[in-house]
């Protein structure tokens, strides 16, 4: 009963906008629902496209559902393109909380009065979203800052609406013919995780600090500095960034910003974060990006809002880089082999069948000029094809796909002639060259040197102890296996000491040559 009133309002809103027709593909089998919707909602709005109706319904349901629609728009591997495009238009249009209440919440988060921290504080919010809002202020030492404060009571509201979303997802899965394919419960669970992460502003501040360190040597992007002494779970204070929103193209041109270079820089920033650092800003829509017009940092990107970031392991990065390069070379067999080698498809998957499916996805794109090919769309189609082969797409790669689509769309909005492929290919080839070959071997040896220095002196004793073990209680098969292992150990030991002797010989020879040259 706690959720009954809210549930009734949600159901009526969805029926009014005809969302029931969207999620129930076999609507004729649910005539009772059609009759109910006709009785309860005579003003059904069925003339607009389905994506627009869903967007309007989510906007009517409030901030949490708007945020859910934003996340759903990133799951292009699950929802049709027309719906995803429409949901991508969802924006947070939340009125700010009253100035006095915001001031009180900030003081609670800071643990002291506003006057004790700031010489000037703007009571009116400069930005207001579903989770938090931002105020400008000036610290005692004169530095300008932005103060982000969490909206009050968000946890209770979120928990209530999330519980209802989980319930609705179960209904959709049971009633809709496409319910299992769309995996609504999984999508809601993913949204649940994102939303709870955004409720902890310390996590966002930590993400920003990490990204700032990573990007310190790349003079293309600015990340605000966090003032940790005034950061808490509900309030964070950061450096104030001054720039022009990247969506305001005319202002950027009037300021003299090189727009095509800006588009190329965005691609470089993205691939640097993904393949060099494995840590990337995963919410790079135009509302979170500005461009600096300060003379000292003119033309640089300004990144904002770090509630959602993506991380990739070394295995993820190598897999993606090899996949991209195989695409560039139209080596579809290698793409299929990579899927099998990564363990993302069952080991009994026929490589030739997977190769044929991937070829069908990629080959049509290569018949067009490179600048007209969408790398994000190719990756999305690959994920959709992989699902037919029982591939479970990893969450970090879904975030990557969503961010790549954002970056590519933004880049081509800035420069319609942007060739993402030609911009990305040299970067990926250079990265791969650094990951394999002698440079990679030397780098890995340096990284492992402290461990080797500890283990090498102990190795002869450990090998000797192993060779002295008596196999009295072993079966004949295990004895034979142990004898084979001992032979292998002797061979490895001989090779090891031969290598050590060779290295010592080289070092002595170099010393003699140096002494001789010195004499």
Shape: globular
Oligomer: single chain
CATH architecture of the largest domain: Orthogonal Bundle
What is the CATH homologous superfamily assignment of the largest domain? Transferase(Phosphotransferase) domain 1
Largest sheet: 5 strands, antiparallel
Question: Given the helix and strand composition, which structural class is it?
Answer: alpha+beta
How much of the residues is beta strand, in percent? 5-15%
Give the class-level CATH name of the largest domain. Mainly Alpha
Total domain units = 4
Mean pLDDT rating: 77
End-to-end CA span: 96 Å
Number of strand elements: 11
Determine the CATH topology of the largest domain.
Transferase(Phosphotransferase), domain 1
Sequence stretches where pLDDT stays below 50 over 5 or more residues: 25-29
How many DSSP H or I helices?
23
The helix content is 55-70%
Could you walk me through the main structural features you see in this protein, from its secondary elements to its overall organization?
Helix 5 (63-73) crosses helix 6. Strands 1, 2, 3, 4 and 6 form a five-stranded antiparallel sheet that branches. A four-stranded mixed sheet has the order 5-10-9-7. Strands 8-11 form a two-stranded antiparallel sheet. With 519 residues, it is α+β, with helices and mostly antiparallel strands. Residues 25-29 have low confidence and may be disordered. Helices cover 61% and strands 8% of the residues. A hairpin with an 8-residue loop joins strand 9 and strand 10 (301-303). The termini are far apart.
């Amino acid at each position: 009963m706690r959720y009954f009133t809210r549930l009734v309002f949600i159901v009526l809103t969805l029926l009014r906008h005809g969302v029931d027709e969207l999620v129930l593909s076999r609507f004729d089998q649910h005539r009772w629902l059609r009759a109910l919707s006709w009785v309860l909602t005579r003003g059904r709005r069925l003339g607009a496209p389905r994506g627009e109706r869903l967007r309007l319904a989510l906007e009517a349901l409030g901030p949490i559902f708007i945020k859910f629609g934003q996340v759903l728009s990133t799951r292009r591997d699950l929802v049709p393109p027309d719906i995803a495009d429409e949901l991508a238009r969802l924006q947070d249009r939340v009125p700010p909380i009253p100035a006095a209440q915001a001031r009180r919440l900030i003081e609670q988060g800071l643990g002291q009065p506003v006057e004790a921290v700031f010489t000037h504080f703007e009571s009116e919010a400069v930005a207001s979203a579903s989770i938090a809002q931002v105020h400008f202020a000036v610290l005692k030492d004169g530095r300008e800052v932005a103060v982000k404060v969490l909206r009050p009571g968000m946890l209770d509201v979120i928990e209530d609406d999330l519980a209802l979303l989980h319930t609705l997802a179960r209904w959709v899965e049971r009633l809709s013919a496409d319910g299992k394919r769309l995996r609504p419960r999984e999508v809601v669970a993913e949204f649940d995780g994102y939303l709870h992460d955004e409720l902890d502003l310390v996590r966002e501040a930590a993400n920003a600090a990490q990204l700032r360190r990573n990007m310190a040597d790349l003079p293309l992007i600015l990340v605000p500095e966090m003032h940790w002494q005034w950061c808490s779970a509900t309030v964070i204070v950061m450096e104030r960034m001054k720039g022009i929103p990247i969506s305001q193209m005319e202002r950027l041109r009037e300021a003299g910003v090189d727009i095509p270079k800006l588009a190329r820089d965005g691609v470089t920033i993205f691939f640097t974060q993904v393949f060099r650092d494995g840590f990337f800003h995963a919410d790079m829509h135009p509302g979170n990006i500005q461009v600096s017009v300060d003379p000292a940092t003119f033309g640089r990107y300004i990144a904002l809002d770090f509630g959602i970031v993506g991380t990739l392991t070394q295995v993820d990065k190598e897999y993606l880089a090899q996949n991209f390069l195989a695409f560039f070379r139209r080596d579809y067999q290698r793409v299929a082999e990579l899927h099998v080698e990564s363990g993302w498809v069952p080991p009994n998957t026929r490589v030739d069948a997977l190769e044929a499916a991937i070829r069908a996805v990629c080959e049509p794109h290569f018949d067009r000029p490179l600048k007209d090919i969408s790398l994000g769309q190719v990756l999305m189609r690959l994920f959709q094809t992989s699902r037919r082969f029982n591939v479970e797409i990893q969450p970090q790669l879904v975030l990557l796909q969503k961010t790549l689509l954002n970056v590519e769309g933004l880049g081509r909005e800035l420069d319609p002639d942007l060739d993402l492929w030609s911009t990305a290919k040299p970067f990926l080839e250079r990265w791969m060259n650094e990951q394999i070959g002698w440079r990679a071997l030397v780098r890995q040896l340096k990284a492992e040197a402290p461990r080797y220095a500890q283990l090498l002196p102990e190795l002869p004793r450990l090998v000797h102890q192993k060779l002295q073990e008596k196999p009295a209680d072993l079966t004949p098969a295990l004895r034979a296996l142990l004898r084979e292992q001992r032979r292998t150990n002797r061979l490895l030991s001989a090779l090891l000491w031969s290598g050590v002797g060779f290295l010592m010989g080289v070092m002595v020879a170099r010393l003699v040559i140096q002494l001789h040259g010195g004499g």
